[in-house]
Amino acid sequence: MTQTRTTRLDRGRGALGPALALVHTGRAPTRAVLTAELGVTRATAGAVAAELEALGLITVDSSPGAAVGSQGRPSHRLAVDPDGPVVLAAQVHADGFRAALVGLGGRIVATAPGCMTVDADPAQVLGEVVEAGAALLRETGRRCVGAGLAVPSAVAEPEGTALNPLHLSWKPGAPVRDLFTRCLAEAGVDGPRPGTPAAGHAANDVNLAALAEHRHGAGRGAQHLLVVGTGHRGVGGALVLDGRLHSGSSGLALEVGHLTVDPEGRPCHCGSRGCLDVETDPLALLEAAGRAPGPEVSLLEQARTLIQAEYARDPAVRSAVETLIGRLGLGLAGLVNILNPDRIVLGGLHRVLVETDGDLLRSVVADRSLWGRSGGVPVLACSLDHNSLVGAAELAWQPVLDDPLGTLGATA
């Protein structure tokens, strides 16, 4: 590193993390945009970009082609390095688990085939999913800088315990973060510096889906983003406020699955009746359509396939979809009244519902909510296919985003 570059980098060292975050989320595609967003000189932005490139995190194209009709010299183009480091992301849900390697930019580099069984012992499950991820690391030869885990439960902070894994056979209070970290060490998964064990991070799956959608998907640009989704069983919610995930005082905020939408409805695990958790998940859809769930594929896949194949021609399926949309819309309207979001993104089966009849869902929300009547709240389908996995990766990437040089080490 030259003396001049060192001096410029010293002045812009505090900008390394913000600069990486801008490239990571696609908000700084060129050095000119990076300079403007950071509010630094062009020379400092160049030194910052060069250091991130030297760390193997981004690429800098110093001679991009000019766009047709443009004038002047085009700015250096910035992008995440496709061959850069990755993190190990894992997700456990009621119908199995999956492991993946995820690079910067939310790009999934490799995935292991999902397992369809979840043992009652969380240590056994986490050991298997970590080993699947470790095998991906061996196969690809990629450098790992961290690991994140998504689970279908509120995860208490700072303890890292799964408080209510209702749709798993795990006992409440399972120490998932500590177990995950231990399994990473046993599998030999390194952290940011070679030879040092990776620290495990863990959080609720819908919280992580919201984080991923806000940074890389349908929620990008929203200031107050509400995400609601149902994967394989149950319903979860999350809120991103001013760019930050709102998890409450101890990680337990937005347990929206236990809003009552049908007082005479199905008994819920929480002791109440007619909660979103049991009235708008895949099992509820199958039962409303008069279909018995089978063991061949996940409940989510069964419900999704049923709607896609039969909605247009089977009145029972169409009625079931309309019933779930009505219940979901009622729940969303209540959340709109309380939270006043500027955008709602729906995931899992709820994504299929809004894609199937978004007009009906939006009309229910508008009719039943004060803020909906005053102007309407955009209700969108999520745009990331594995947003909880991508969100789990965001957990592991966060230390690097906060301090790239301090986490990964200085370059020569």
TrEMBL record:
Signal peptide coordinates: none
Pfam family for this entry, one: ROK
Family listed: Belongs to the ROK (NagC/XylR) family.
Protein name, per record: ROK family protein
UniProt organism field: Streptomyces hazeniae
